[in-house]
Design brief:
Length: 411
């Protein structure tokens, strides 16, 4: 079975993770996919299959090298999808793309416009899987799941391929930042790992943002507007004043590459109370901490203007740039880079403008770069994945597991 055929099955599971949930997994449907994947893993000859109490799926592709003494490799993908766009009743389709705009639905006008997404031209002559434009597709990261299990099938069917034991883990709730929190590294029992959770085929990522959140609470005072002079303290307007002091040039819509940002992702409240949630990002740790310090300086200014306690800022550090760990394990980057070159593709090592499970896992002692899956426009209705790029990713994984088996254990 080809990887895209598996993906067609997996997108039928409505596994959008819920940021408001108080338990793991955040969406009960994740259990359905996890258990069905465990069954499929058994059919593919995998061993040590476990679905644990937090909905993590573990398994082993047995090695084929007698007396193997090399590194144990883990491959990791997540089973949830983003809830930022509709994710139920997904209607996947495969379109042979011959250039121009990619029309998802003629009746509704849903279209992936070439002018907006010029990289679409890279797929002329290819088959593209997308939704009908009313939902996301769910290739993030079910494409990674499909590619890993396609690898498992290839290895089962050809025992002459030499490789060490390969640990596999499928995680819930990655899209809400919880998937690596409950991953049992002792149970995984791997020396090195890759997340198969990137975008275009050919990505080999070893740099992420450093991440912080800033929760800003504004405490106002309400009174009838007819008698409000010198009395009312309007938290809504103070919230606007706060955001107006955030550098406009350092927001997501004005940054790229190594440029970090402040992102106001949520604002709610009324005259008496407002809550603003910012995510702060930069590839340099000191710079992202400086952004946190700036939000506190803005709060201090407004407190001097409106009274102490008017504005409160709570800063939380999340994940860190995994380059700080992976710089000591660059062979893990070099190996897929060399394989890609043999396949006629130059690796894209652009920094991730976000994070991956690999960031957290690397700092937990499991060095873990990220590999592309063949898709684009994740988390939205214009999401798509290239069928042939999924085949290439499966081929990359097949060559990767053989290459890792030739490396020393302390890779």
């Amino acid at each position: 079975m080809r990887a895209y055929e598996r993906l067609l099955k997996y997108v039928a599971y409505p596994t959008g993770s819920d940021p408001a949930a108080e338990k793991t997994p955040s969406n009960p449907t994740e259990w359905d996919l996890a258990r069905d994947l465990a069954t499929e893993m058994g059919e593919l000859g995998m061993t040590d299959i476990v679905v644990d109490d937090a909905c993590y799926v573990y398994g082993t592709i047995p090695g084929t090298i007698a007396g193997y003494a090399g590194p144990t490799l883990a491959l990791i993908s997540h089973i949830d999808v983003s809830s930022a766009a509709p994710y139920t009743d997904i209607k996947p389709q495969i379109i042979h793309y011959e250039g121009g705009d990619l029309v998802q639905n003629e009746a509704t006008g849903a279209t992936v416009r070439l002018a907006d997404y010029p990289f679409l031209a890279n797929y002329i002559g290819c088959d593209i899987m997308t939704s009908d434009g009313s939902t996301l597709l769910g290739a993030d990261d079910k494409a990674g799941v499909a590619e890993i299990l396609t690898l498992a099938e290839q290895l089962r069917d050809d025992p002459s391929i030499k490789h060490g034991p390969i640990r596999v883990c499928f995680t819930p709730d990655e899209e809400i930042g919880l998937s690596s929190e409950f991953l049992d590294i002792d149970r995984l029992a791997a020396d090195v790992a890759y997340t198969v959770d990137g975008d275009a085929f050919g990505e080999v990522s070893y740099e992420t943002f450093n991440a912080m959140t800033a929760i800003v609470t504004i405490n106002g005072y309400n009174i009838h507007p007819g008698s409000a002079k010198n009395m009312m303290k309007n938290a809504c307007r103070i919230a606007c004043e706060f955001d107006g002091m955030i550098p406009d040039s350092e927001t997501p819509e004005h940054t790229e590459g190594y440029e970090g940002f402040y992102h106001l992702c949520e604002m709610a409240g009324d005259v008496e109370h407002m809550r603003l949630e910012y995510i702060l990002r930069d590839h340099d740790l000191a710079t992202v901490r400086g952004r946190g310090a700036w939000t506190q300086r803005v709060a201090d200014f407004l407190n001097a203007k409106y009274g102490e306690g008017t504005v409160e800022v709570e800063l939380t550090e999340e994940y860190k740039n995994m380059r700080e760990v992976l710089k000591d394990h660059m062979r893990l980057v070099d190996i897929p880079t060399e394989i890609l070159r043999d396949m006629g593709v130059e690796a894209d090592k652009s920094p991730i403008r976000g994070g991956t499970d690999g960031a957290t896992l690397s700092f937990r002692g499991l060095p873990c770069p990220n590999l592309g899956t063949g898709g684009h426009n994740f988390h939205g209705r214009r999401e798509f994945v290239c069928v042939q790029a999924m085949d290439q990713t499966a081929e990359l994984l097949l060559r990767l597991v053989q290459a890792i088996a030739r490396e020393p254990k302390n890779l």
